[in-house]
Amino acid sequence: MLHSSSTYAFSDSAEFAAASRAKVGSGYVYSRWANPTVDAFEAAVAGLEGSNGAEAFSSGMGAISSIMLALCSSGDRVVAAKQLYGNTYSLLSERLPRYGITTNWFDLVDHAGIRSALPGAKLLYCETISNPRVQVPDLAKLAELAGEQGLPLVVDNTFASPILCRPLEHGASVVVHSATKFLGGHHDLLGGVVCADAEILEAVAAVGRDFGPSLAPFNAWLALRGIATLPLRVERSCDSALRIAGALEDHEEVDAVYYPALASDPSNALADRLLGGRGGGTLGFDVAGGRDRAAAFQDSLRLITPASSLGGTHSLIVHAASATHTQLSADELRSAGISEGFCRLSVGLEDPDDLLDDLTAALENP
Ligand SMILES: Cc1ncc(COP(=O)(O)O)c(C=O)c1O
Predict the structure, then answer these.
(1) Ligand 1 in contact with 178 (CB < 6 A)?
(2) Exposure winner among 168, 215, 269, 310, fewest CB in 10 A?
(3) Where residue 20 sits, what CATH number does that domain have?
(4) If you take atom 15 of ligand 1, which residue's CA is the nearest one?
(5) pLDDT, tens digit, for every residue of 126-162?
(6) What pLDDT does 23 receive?
(7) 175 and 35 co-located in one domain
(8) Residue 133 CB neighbours (<10 A)
(9) Rounded to two decimals, what is the model's pTM?
(10) Is 131 in the pocket of ligand 1 (CB under 6 A)?
(11) What order do you get walking across the sheet with 282-287 strand by strand?
């Protein structure tokens, strides 16, 4: 049910005063603190991730920055896998240093480097399936390394969704989602959510109350609608993505395909362990011929839409060098493992034959 109220009435001033002192936990006072529809969304995600509770935010970045501000203060340090979503990368590498919070970066397979940087840090951060190159970290190993120092492993589970992976079961302490993606699932809302134990969650919620990136009740209601079909959508996207990844692997206009469920992919063994052998709804591939050829390929698509975002009903494609990573030089792209022809495809719910026809026609007649 959608409760769109921003505020709540009380029968007398004593009740109002008591609820205001408590702010949360004794009824509803003001929707930046708590709202019944947002609470229902939080309970649904907590159930999916197997956590005791969840706290919702206005976007994935609202959730991620609230975690950072809750767990770190000026002078503190984060250790992060360098394979991250672009705005998470800029939050950690540009924004937070202005507030005295710095980050040590490591390749997600560099366990020795990560172990050496953890003493004295505040948290370890990674994504279950990294954006955009869809690499899978060894979550249990990273949780073990963080645990040796008594630190939380924070995992962005956006790409996998709790249908493929529940990071808390692999030792993570905090799970975060951009609910804009698979949880919402229809490209019609922005949202974020954090799952953790009560102590961390209260610290994260307090940041949310003071900074104010609360999830709008209508977006929580839309996200609940999305969650109702989450398993079906994830299953369909995974099936179609695997089929497309396999076909592109054999296509002469494609230099390389990145998809964890492919036997040839370096993340394949980890996908077996962490994702039940599934690869998620997103794949990457290098169009042969580089930047111009990839841009022309993208322009020739008729069914698949060039657009940011992923995890929704419709298939979306991003040519990294000309869209999401324009600020990087050719060298910087290379060192981030992103070729000039790299495209990220989020596979939606369309007929996979239609998607393959569209991709093949655009590859062959860009
Ligand atoms: C893995 C990942 N985490 C976080 C975000 C940020 O989410 P939002 O756009 O909802 O702020 C994104 C957005 O694309 C993402 O892909």
Answers:
(1) yes
(2) 269
(3) 3.40.640.10
(4) 85
(5) 999 999 999 999 999 999 999 999 999 999 999 999 9
(6) 59
(7) yes
(8) 16
(9) 0.97
(10) yes
(11) 254-258, 282-287, 342-346, 316-319, 305-306
